[in-house]
Amino acid sequence: MYLQKITIKNYRCFQNFSMEFQKGLNVIIGANNSGKTGLLYAIRLLKDPSVYVDDFNKNDLLEFNNKYRNEAPQIEVTYTIRHLILESDTEDESIIRLLPFLGMDNLNETLTEENGVYQYDVTAVIKAVCSLDVKVLGDYKSAISDITDFNGFVTVLKSFISRYSWSYYNGTNDTVADRKDALGIFDIRFIGAERTSEAVSKETRREIDKFAKDQNNITALEQLKSDISIQMKDLLQPALEKLSQLFENENNDIGLTRGNVTISHDLRPSVSVGDAYVTEVRDTHADYNIPLDYNGLGYNNLISIYMLIKLMEIRKGRDFRILCLEEPEAHLHPAMQYKLFKYLRKLDETDKLNQQIFVTTHSSNISAVAGIDNMYMLAHERVNGQSNCKQQSLAVHFATKPDAKIHLTKFLDVTRSDMLFADKVILVEGIAEKLLLPLFMEKCGCPYEDEHISVVEIGGKHFGHFVELFNGNAVSKKVLCITDRDFRWRDDGAIQCYSEYENGTTSHIEDLKEGFPINNFQIYTQNLGGRTFEDELFFTNLDNTAVGKALFKLVASPSVSSFADTYGFDYAVWNNIEKHKEIDGRSRPLITKLLDEFNTVITSDNSKEDFYKRLFFAELFLYYAEAKKGDTALNILTDTAISNNLIVPKYIKDGLIWLLK
C-alpha cells in the first residue's frame, strides 16, 4: 500500500496543487522555500491532523474581501491510496482499512490475472477538510464585517482557529467517513531537520511494550519484577528499617487508630519495560558505550534513519508505513550523505524498503546518487503577483527521452546536480568559462548568489541532453547556453574571408535551435571574430594594451611574450622578418606561416584589413592557450591587474542580460 497522489488546496504555500508519487523512495528536490517541508507536513496530516492560522495559504487569504465575507476559508487535502491485493491472500487486512474509502462500483474492473494469480488493483480516496464549525459561522461573519485590511482579517481568523476541525470523506462519492478510519490507514513517521533520537526511542519502546503485553510474557515479567523487589529489599534493608522506625510507630499520634489504618511500606520496581531499553553508541576502538545524546549529530542522524528503516522488517506486510525525512543532509558529511542514499537506493531497487519514504533535500550530493527515476522537482513560482507551487516527476519527464536520461544518469554528478536546485542555469562547454563566469557576472552587475544561478560545465558540446531536463518541464527555469562557434579560420593553409564567418552556421548550434524552440532557452556564441571563448576574450581586450600583454604573457613562450612586451600588437612590426630573430626557433616558423596566410587574405579582402590584423593576434593567443585553458582562467582570477581591468566578451554580456530579464 502506498500514497499514489496528493491534492492540496489552500494549505501553506499550496493553493491548488497535485502531485503523484511512486512506491518506495521519493526524493523531493528544490531550492529553499520551494514547498518541500510543506509537502511533508501535508502528508503527515493523514496521521497527525492539526491546524494553525499560518497553515492557511496567505495568497488565498489576501482575497478575503471577495471570498470570505460570507464563508470561512478552509483547507482541503485529498489522498489517493493504491494497493495490490492478492485474491488468495486471506491474511491481508488492508481491504478492511480501505473499505470506507473505496469506489465499490469499479472494484471488479480492477481484477487482473497473470499465470493463474488473481489480484485487485485497489484505489482508495480520502478527502480531509479542515473547516469552521457552522455553529459559529454567524459570529465569524459579524467579526469580519468591519475588517478592511489583511492583517485585521488574519487576526480575526486566528481567534476562530479553536473552532476549526478536520472532517473526512470518501473522496470518490463524498460520503462522510469516520476520523479513526482515515487516520488509521498509515503509520506515518516524520523526522524533521532538527532531529533527535526521540523518534527511534518511541519506536523501540513500542516494540518492547508490545512484547511485554503479550499474554505469554506477562507472568514471566511479573515474576521478574518480584525477584528484583526481593533483591532490592535485601540490598536496602538498613534504609527500610530506618524508615519503618520513623513511620510505622505512629502510636495514634495523629489519630490513625480511629480509622483502623496504619502506615506500611514496600518496595515495588515500577520501571517501564520499554523505558528500560536504551540505544547507545559503542566505541569500536576502546570498547566502551556512550549515550546517543553525547555522540555527534551526524552519526546520530544515520543511526536514527537506519533504525527506523530496519524496524519495519519485524512488521513487514501488516503495518503500512510512511517515513518522511526532512533534509537528511543536516549535519552529514558529503561522503556520508552519498553512503546513506546509496544504501536507500539499493533497498528500493531490491524492493526491501518495506515502506514508502519521502525525502526532501537541497543537497547535490544526495541528488547525484538518488537516481533520476526517484526524483521530483519542486518550485514555488511567483509571476505577475500570482504564486503557486509546480512539480515535475523526472521519471515521467524522461519517459520519452531515453537517450537524454542515459546521458544524465551517467554525468549528473555532484557539481552538475547543482542545476536541479538553481533558479537559473548557465551551461558552458569547459572549465575556463565555468571559472570565469562568476567574475563576468560581477562585472555585468549580475547578482550571482541573489539570482541563484548555477554554472554547469558539461565537458563538450552535448548540450541537448542537459537542455532536455528543462524542455517541457513544469518547473520552468531559464537556461542560458554559452557555446563556441568553432569556425575554421584556417582552411587548407589559407585564411577564410570575413564574409564566411559572418554568414556561416555551426551545426551543433543549429541543432539546438531546431530541437529546442522554447522560450526559457537561449544560445549565445562568439560574434566579434573569435571561434572559441579564449580568442574572443583576447579579441575583446586587445585594445587595452596592458591587459592584452598580460593575457599574452600567461600563455605564450618566453621569447614570444617578451616580443609582445617590447613591440605590443603592432602588426607591421610582427610582419618584419628581421625582427623575428628575437623570437625562439620553435615559435618562429609558426608565426611566419601565420603571417603569410594573413597577408594573403588581407591582399584579397583589404576592406577588412584591420579586422584580419587583430584576428592574427587572437589566433596566435589561441594557439598557445589551447592546451592550458583551465590554468589560464585560474591565472586571470589570481592576477588582479588582469581581472580588475578585463572586459567581458559581448556575447557573454548579452547572454547575462537575457538571463536577468
Report on the architecture of this protein:
Residues 420-486 form the OLD protein-like TOPRIM domain. Residues 1-366 form the Endonuclease GajA/Old nuclease/RecF-like AAA domain. It comes from Geovibrio thiophilus. Pfam families: AAA_15, OLD-like_TOPRIM. This is DUF2813 domain-containing protein. The protein has 661 residues and is an alpha/beta fold. The protein folds into 4 domains: 20-47 and 186-196 and 298-421, 3-Layer(aba) Sandwich (Rossmann fold), CATH 3.40.50; 49-178, no CATH class; 198-278, no CATH class; 426-464 and 477-661, no CATH class. Helix content is 41%, strand content 19%. It is built from 28 helices and 21 strands. The strands form 5 sheets. Strands 1, 2, 4, 5, 6, 7 and 8 form a 7-stranded antiparallel beta sheet that branches. Helix 21 packs antiparallel against helix 22 (558-567). The longest helix is centred in the middle third of the chain and has 21 residues, at 215-235. The chain is elongated and about 130 Å long. The model has no long low-confidence stretch (mean pLDDT 89).
